[in-house]
Design brief:
The protein is α+β, with helices and mostly antiparallel strands. The protein is built from 7 helices and 8 strands; from the N terminus they run E-E-E-E-E-H-H-E-H-E-E-H-H-H-H. It has an 8-stranded mixed β-sheet with strand order 2-1-6-7-8-5-4-3. The two termini are 120 Å apart. The relative contact order is 0.04. Its main location: cytoplasm.
């Protein structure tokens, strides 16, 4: 560990105090000593030594009582049990920063120049440096060792050195024995390798002589082959040279013709360039005109936006009218429901006619009056529906005209302004709204058509009920005719010749039977007719 050691030298004559700073490595020993006789104690021993100076020895023994006073004096926050580990941590921080130019943690030892004569303690300080001040975390006062302590320390060091010497001597002996064994083994292997080397040399000489003879023969053969290949390559080279010369002449002719073509094309291109320059000028003039037109188109777009706003208001008004028509249609539906209730009531009346067989004619007249009223209401409803359809058709025509106008304006906007994308998006939104309104109108038209179909169905039912009533009237008329005929046929029988009481009683009995039988038949026919009319009305 490197420390900054300060030594004080006092001069007796001049009484000046001089300070010497040096940096060196010392060994710090920390030992926790336990003593049980006569009292159980724990002491912390701190020892500073220098491996280069055997007389450099500072000792400090800190008991638990001394540590309490040290803790109070220096404001320590640890107890005696954890103090050694914290002191070791501080020393480790000093070691980690000893190689830096400006270390943060320093271990300073300030000692007098002649500590043996002065018997003054040395201060061991653990200092943290920063830009503002030097903070001493711990300051310990160490006493220089006495002669006896130094001798004991030297004796301990001597014993340690002797032990190390003995260990080194034993290691040397072991290494010598190992090396001698290795040397003998290497000598044996060397003799064997030298023999193998002699054998290899003899083999190598024989092989080199054989290879040299083969090499000479191969060289002569290769020389002959090389001469043959040389002559053949010369001939091929001449042929290639002739072919290349011919190809070169052809290429030169082709290039000359290509050059003439390129010159003509160059002239054409220069003429085209001049023409393009003139066209560019024309286009620039046109561009200026188009810019003016674009400004005009922008102004038109502003006006079209305003018109679009007015059209939006008109669309809202049309929607409001459509809503009013919907309410009107709802009212008409309610009236149709009322008419259906009236039809149900007529059914009930028809059922009542079965019970009131004697008053069929009066009920028929009342039914005819009710049917006239129903026809009048149906006519009024059909007229109102026709009016509603006319209004809806007018609204559809107006909407179509508005859609056509908006489409024309959109085409004008697209043709005149490609730059005004925002206006296009708004117009698209307006078109979508119009499409939505058209779809709503289509749905409403479908609903109106459904209502028309319902009205037609009700009209058909009413027509069917009319036909049923006509058939009922015909049946009633036929029955009345038959009743009149029966009554007329009865009168001459009453006006006939006088008969005996027995014959009269028999004839009257027969007539009563006949009358009752005819009445039963008529009642059955009436029941059948009314049941058939009721079933047809229900259907």
């Amino acid at each position: 560990m490197e420390l900054y050691v300060t030594t004080k030298n006092t001069l007796i004559e001049s009484f000046w105090l001089t300070l010497h700073y040096r940096r060196g490595n010392i060994r710090v020993g920390i030992e926790l000593q336990l003593t049980t006789n006569p009292v159980h104690k724990r002491d912390l021993l701190v020892r500073l030594t220098d491996d280069t100076d055997p007389y450099f020895l500072y000792n400090l023994a800190i008991s638990e009582e001394d540590f309490q006073s040290l803790k109070v004096q220096q404001g320590l926050l640890v107890d005696f049990a954890s103090f050694p580990q914290k002191f070791i941590d501080l020393l480790n921080q000093c070691i980690s920063e000893q190689d830096k130019e400006n270390p943060r943690f320093l271990l300073q030892l300030s000692s007098p120049s002649s500590p043996v004569l002065d018997h003054s303690p040395a201060n061991l300080n653990v200092v943290e440096t920063n830009a503002f001040k030097h903070l001493t975390h711990l300051s310990l006062k160490l006493l220089h060792g006495t002669d006896v302590e130094i001798k004991k320390y030297l004796a301990v060091c001597l014993s340690c050195v002797k032990e190390e010497k003995q260990q080194l001597e034993q290691r040397l002996k072991k290494t010598e024995d190992d090396l001698s064994r290795q040397l003998s083994y290497t000598q044996q292997t060397l003799s064997e390798k030298s023999r193998e080397l002699d054998k290899l040399r003899s083999e190598w000489t024989s092989q080199t002589s054989a290879l040299s003879s083969r090499h000479s023969q191969d060289l002569t053969a290769e020389r002959e082959n090389a001469l043959e290949t040389q002559t053949r390559l010369q001939q091929q080279n001449e042929q290639l040279r002739r072919e290349l010369e011919g190809a070169h002449t052809k290429n030169t002719q082709q290039l000359q013709s290509r050059l003439a073509e390129l010159e003509t094309s160059n002239r054409d291109l220069t003429e085209k360039r001049y023409k393009s320059e003139s066209t560019i000028r024309d286009f620039k003039a046109k561009l200026v005109g188009l810019e003016e037109e674009s400004q005009r188109a922008k102004q038109q777009a502003l006006s079209l936006r305003r018109e679009n706003g007015t059209l939006d208001t008109e669309c809202h008004e049309k929607e409001r009218q459509v809503n009013q028509l919907q309410t009107r249609v709802a009212v008409l539906e309610q009236e149709m429901k009322d008419k259906e209730q009236l039809v149900l009531r007529t059914k009930e009346v028809l059922e009542a006619t079965q019970q009131q067989k004697n008053s069929v004619e009066g009920n028929a007249e009342s039914k005819q009056l009710q049917m006239g009223k129903l026809e009048a209401t149906v006519k009024s409803l059909s007229e109102e529906l026709i009016k509603a359809n006319g209004i809806i058709k007018k609204l559809q025509g107006e909407l179509r005209g508005l859609v056509g106008k908006i489409k024309v304006k959109n085409t004008v906007m697209v043709s005149q302004e490609k730059v005004l994308q925002e206006t296009q998006e708004r117009l698209h939104k307006a078109q979508r709204d119009l499409q939505d309104t058209q779809q709503q109108l289509k749905h409403r038209d479908e609903e109106v058509s459904k209502l028309k179909e319902q009205l037609e169905e009700t009209v058909q039912k009413l027509d069917e009920s009319r036909e049923v009533l006509k058939t009922n009237e015909n049946v009633i008329m036929w029955l009345n005719k038959q009743l009149n005929e029966n009554q007329l046929s009865r009168k001459p029988e009453t006006l006939g010749t006088f008969e005996t009481p027995s014959t009269l009683s028999a004839s009257t009995g027969q007539r009563m039977v006949k009358c009752t039988q005819s009445d039963h038949l008529k009642l059955r026919v009436l029941d059948f007719v009314f049941s058939w009319t009721a079933e047809s009305v229900l259907k």
